[in-house]
Design goal:
With about 100 residues, the protein is α+β, with helices and mostly antiparallel strands. About 15% of the residues lie in helices and about 30% in strands. The protein has helices at about 20-25, 35-40, 65-70, and strands spanning about 1-5, 10-15, 20, 50-55, 80, 85-90, 90-95.
């Protein structure tokens, strides 16, 4: 089990190991999309890259970056992730819409 702390929203949720970060955010009313992305997002299949989050703590408790993330974020720090491609395996702190 791991807690996911959403920093901007000041909200913490509990997630089972292996839980998808995007799904847990959506299930708990955390808005991870910018205005236009609310309409144009791909629904979590890794096609649009609009569910970008920044991990401030617990990066080691996440699944490794996917090939898609490595391509899209090659000029970004390692703590930028796509929520839809990320599984949680321990406590993390997340900044939405970095």
């Amino acid at each position: 089990m791991g807690n996911i702390k959403f920093v901007k929203e000041n909200k913490e949720i509990v997630a089972a190991n292996g839980a998808n970060l995007r799904l847990k955010a959506v299930e708990n009313g955390i808005d991870i999309y910018t205005f236009l992305s609310k309409i144009t997002n791909c629904g979590g299949v890794g096609q649009c890259t609009t569910c970008v989050v920044q991990i401030t703590e617990g990066l080691e408790n996440l699944s490794p970056r996917t090939d898609l993330e490595n391509r899209k974020f090659k000029n970004k720090p390692d703590n930028y992730r796509l929520a839809c491609q990320t599984t949680v395996n321990g406590p993390v702190s997340v900044i939405t819409k970095p």
